[in-house]
Amino acid sequence: MALVFAPFGGISIELQVVIALVALMIGIPHGAVDHLITLPSLTAWQRVVFFASYLAIVGLVIWAILAANVLGFQLVVLMSAIHFGLGDASFVSELNARNSDSSSWPKLPFAIASGFTPVLIPLVSEQSGQALQAVKPNLVNWSMGLAPFLFVAMTAVSSAAILWLLVKKRYSEVLDLALLLTLSLVAPPLIAFAIYFGLWHALRHTARVSLELRGSQLQHAQGRPAKAFWSAVLAGVPALILVLGFVFYLAITVGTDVSTQLLWYGLVVVWALTVPHMLLTLRLDVRALASPAK
Length: 294
Description:
single chain; mainly alpha; 79% helix; 294 residues
């Protein structure tokens, strides 16, 4: 998308913020069906405990990030990169299993590169200052002066992973990482985030969730994968509406200017939701990565 706008002088920061907000809305439903997968096997009392624990974790993380912006952001960057990397690697492992591909492949290098590339590189690029200024000014120096080193190091790690996968003849994963690296290097940071979160990670996770969600499983059994996918998406829409309502409430009650604070509070809420979401999906990820192809 950045290449499309490049002849016109690039994308304004205001438009980047709008696109990032849209990406948040597209991406939120992918993590909003965790309870639908977990709850059917729980008793009524266990469901109460589940919801209470889930919301308590979210509330605690929101408070922690708002109380310590920089430290909270640093932890979120690390946590998100691990979550994205495990998710992408487990997605590939599940595809291998379904295609009866039992060949070994470098899962760890792929997980590190696929998780840290779209998170870290945009945040330490030369354009990151303007993006972070638009999100939260005191995050501009979040890397504590290590941005140039982190940029070079992560670009080298990602390139090395691509070469390793190329030697192993894992061409699909090579294309995966090459596109991610190109996106992270070329697109403005908020645009890179928007494309990755809303149109990459979220869609992949939703496809995986459709294999676990009962309604979607019925559609899969009838040979309707597209309907199974949209069934999983629609299942998360009510939670999306609740999240958006809470973000507006948070921006109005805590912030001073909704127009400038909305993206920041939207990100804070999404980051907070990612913590219990990551804990719940960790079981699926570990199972997919540990299971041999059949």
